[in-house]
Design brief:
The complex is a heterodimer of chains A (about 290) and B (about 450). Chain A has helices spanning about 1-35, 35-40, 55-65, 70-100, 105-115, 125-135, 150-175, 180-190, 195-205, 205-220, 225-230, 240, 255-275, 275-285. Chain A is an all-alpha fold and about 290 residues long. Chain A has one domain: MetI-like fold (Orthogonal Bundle). Chain B is globular. Chain B is built from 19 helices and twelve strands. In chain B, strands 2-1-3-10-4-11 form a six-stranded mixed beta sheet, sandwiched between helices. In chain B, strands 6-7-5-8 form a four-stranded mixed beta sheet. Chain B folds into two domains: about 10-165 and about 325-390, D-Maltodextrin-Binding Protein, domain 2; about 165-320 and about 400-440, D-Maltodextrin-Binding Protein, domain 2 (3-Layer(aba) Sandwich). Chain B starts with 7 loop residues before the first helix and ends with a helix. Chain B has about 450 residues and is an alpha/beta fold. The interface of A and B includes residues 67, 234, 236, 245 and 246 of A.
């Protein structure tokens, strides 16, 4: 008994220490975002000094200098279509590989899963050149130079391509848990393939779709890499990548960047709080095969 | 008072030397660029004065700091053509600089903020920047030195210089007044002053290298003082050898001065070093005059002097004074408006508007209002006017990849000065490879 109690105490202390360790940088960021730069730069202990003045100036400046309303608008123009498209396409692939068995079933699923393992950085050079060579019609919104590169459509497409691997994997595992008899019954009643997908399988997949939608929203919202590489025009950057505009030529106010970053994480935190259950089930959905 | 650079000779010689190397390729590139321009230059054409263009004009800007950002907005507000809608696309300065190739290839913006000299020619020679010789025909008040710094290998102009700042040795007037220090004019006096500071318990030189660019200024200063402007320009252009005794001499001198510098520079930001000067812990700091932006108190207390003479045969006439300005992409969507804007940017009207928001730099146009200059601006302007050679700073004077290699080497050198011969041999190898790539492609 004594030893298990001791183990429990050790475990508690360990977990507490780890939690503090993890929280420290975040707390440091929150505190410094309320402090003027002059204070952290002149105190010999810098960011570890006790705060004298707390102010909202950094948040005001970050909002104005970062041109945040504009960048948020651009973000939602990218994230909303990207999430809808990725769920639509990957649910169709998942439907096909989970409900019908054909020759390349496993191969196709493996291809999609393997795509998850590919580091995005490895394809950037060819992708950039391909994007440079694909023209966009002039009426396409945010098309800029008239090619896929630099356009928001190009950004949406690459998110759809990169996220659909994971979504297909999760959705196909989930769909495999739905009884096959449902489809058989529908077929007997004369339902077309589309109807089986849209009216039978999709409504039943709603929990998985909800979980994935919240996860995908957070992932695409937090994307930095693709936007930085593919968008050249300052005003067309989504919010996460636009944060670097708070850095100057010779001088970067770290407290201002901390304040800007806090503003930018607010939507993700709100969505997490509102959809906590979906978030957590999203991380485990499809993990156990029925 | 004129603040145009009076020393076009060296630039012209440099331009001429580069023309021999790159001229042939450049003519080919511009023939193609020209025909593309003719093909898509529909609508209004540039009339030589501001007023007839219309439509939307996109300006790509690296002015992510508040003062330059407000300055550019003031320039745009002062643009006398109300028929043009101007959109400013700002990217942070460092990302902009790193991504300039893709930004130029994208051609999303019509006018782009950029640097004069080698960095402008580098892209003009690749056909990514548009010829604005017709704008220059209508420009007044920019000296020959500025024109030379805007001219590419084919003899045409590709850049409009708007402002510049100087690199010098900055100090705190308060500390110097209290301790009775005076500005040295020779290297012996400089070393004597440094020894005096040591005995007063003040570190003579603040030293910082976070980002691996600040101490490029120290290399530039020593090379310009010991070997002169032409040698420096040759070396940056890939022609001189880094295993040359003259380069070795720069590092020998630098090593002898290192004990007067703060240790651990690679982990220190320039702001931290400037704060040490501001608070009297360090006596001098070789940096651009933007050091004054560290704090308002320092701006009021800061003064500077030209890097003193190290060799009387070479003198102390040359210095780093980076020129900022704007260029036009080779395929602008709105060429007429782009050229009108570039013409506007060259005028005292635009430059006075800019300086009213950002008083840390000096106007390029001799007609700009210098009566509003603060002491630092006046001194910068005098320093540049008296200069016998103006370099743009190492990372603007050579191929970007090679500037990176130099930055790595300098950072290693100040940690381990004893290994300098191996590092220089290595840098020379890298130089050969990088320039071979550049000249081939």
């Amino acid at each position: 008994m004594i030893s298990s109690r001791r183990n429990q105490i050790i475990a508690q202390v360990f977990l507490f220490a780890m939690a503090v360790l993890w929280m420290l940088p975040i707390l440091g960021m929150i505190i410094s975002s309320f402090r003027p730069y002059a204070e952290t730069s002149t105190d010999p202990n810098g960011f570890f000094s006790w705060p004298d003045t707390l102010t909202l100036d950094n948040f005001r400046n970050a909002w104005a200098r970062g041109n945040m309303p504009r960048h948020w608008f651009v973000t939602f123009l990218v994230v909303i279509p990207a999430v809808i498209l990725v769920l639509f396409f990957s649910s169709m692939v998942a439907f096909a590989v989970s409900r019908y068995s054909w020759k390349f079933n496993i191969a196709l699923l493996m291809l999609f899963t393997a795509g998850n393992l590919l580091p995005p950085q490895s394809i950037i050079q060819p992708l950039f050149q391909i994007y440079n060579r694909i023209p966009l019609p002039e009426f396409a919104p945010y098309s800029n130079s008239g090619e896929l590169r630099g356009s928001l459509i190009g950004l949406i497409l690459i998110h759809v391509a990169f996220q659909s691997g994971f979504c297909t994997f999760v959705l196909s595992n989930y769909m495999k848990t739905l009884p096959k008899e449902l489809n058989e019954a529908a077929m007997v009643d004369g339902a077309s393939l589309w109807r089986q997908y849209w009216q039978i399988v999709m409504p039943l997949t709603r929990p998985a779709l909800g979980a994935l939608a919240t996860l995908e929203f957070a992932w695409i919202y937090n994307d930095y890499f693709w936007a930085v590489v593919l968008v050249q025009k300052g005003n067309d950057l989504p919010i996460t990548s636009s944060l670097r505009n708070l850095s100057g030529e010779f001088f970067t106010d770290d407290n201002l960047v901390a304040a800007g970053s806090l503003i930018v994480v607010i939507p993700t935190i709100l969505i997490y709080l509102a959809l906590r259950r979906q978030f957590i089930s999203g991380l485990s959905v499809g993990a156990s095969k029925g | 008072m004129s603040n145009s650079y009076p020393q076009p000779g060296a630039w012209d010689a440099y331009v001429a030397r580069r023309s021999v190397i790159k001229g042939g390729a450049a003519v080919g590139a511009f023939a193609v660029g020209g025909s593309v321009l003719a093909a898509c230059g529909g609508g209004d054409t540039f009339s030589g004065e501001i007023g007839s263009a219309s439509g939307t004009l996109n300006i790509g800007s690296n002015a992510s700091d508040p003062a330059p950002q407000a300055g550019l907005q003031a320039v745009v507000n002062a643009f006398p053509n109300a028929d043009v809608d101007v959109v400013i696309n700002t990217l942070d300065h460092n990302t902009y600089q790193e991504n300039i190739t893709t930004i130029l290839q994208a051609q999303d913006d019509d006018v782009l903020a950029w640097f004069a000299g080698f960095r402008n020619k580098f892209f003009a020679d690749q056909g990514l920047v548009g010829d604005i010789s017709d704008v220059w025909e209508n420009i007044t008040g920019l000296g020959e030195g500025f024109k030379a710094a805007s001219t590419a290998s084919d003899g045409n102009q590709y850049f409009v210089p708007t402002s510049f700042y100087t690199w010098a040795i900055n100090y705190s007037k308060k500390l110097w007044g209290e301790n009775g220090y005076t500005e040295p004019t020779t290297s012996d006096e400089l070393i004597g002053l440094a020894e005096q500071m040591m005995s007063d318990g003040v570190t003579p030189f603040a030293f910082a290298n976070d980002g691996k660019w600040p101490i490029m200024g120290t290399f530039d200063a020593l090379n310009l003082r010991l070997n002169g402007y032409d040698f420096h320009v040759d070396l940056m252009g890939g022609n001189g050898s880094w295993t040359d005794d003259r380069v070795r001499n720069v590092f020998t001198t630098w090593e002898s001065l290192l004990p007067f510098h703060q240790e651990g520079a690679n982990g220190r930001t320039w702001q931290e070093a400037a704060t040490d000067v501001e608070e009297g812990r360090a006596g001098m700091y070789l940096l651009g005059t933007f050091a004054a932006s560290n704090s308002e108190a320092f701006a009021a207390d800061m003064d500077f002097f030209n890097v003193p003479e190290f060799d009387s045969a070479i003198g102390a006439g040359a210095l780093d004074a980076p020129i900022d300005g704007f260029q036009m992409v080779s395929e602008p969507t709105n060429e007429a408006a782009a050229k009108e804007m570039l013409l506007h940017m060259s005028t005292p009207l635009a430059q006075d508007a800019y300086l009213s928001e950002d008083p840390s730099v000096v106007a390029s146009n001799s007609g700009a209002n210098t009566s509003v200059y603060n002491d630092l601006q006046k001194k910068s302007s005098e320093l540049a006017s008296a200069a016998t050679g103006i370099s743009q700073f190492l990372d603007r004077d050579t191929i970007p990849d090679f500037a990176g290699a130099c930055g790595d080497m300098f950072a290693e050198f100040i940690e381990n000065p004893g290994g300098v011969d191996g590092m220089l041999a290595d840098l020379e190898e890298k130089k050969v490879a990088i320039f071979a790539d550049f000249n081939a492609g």
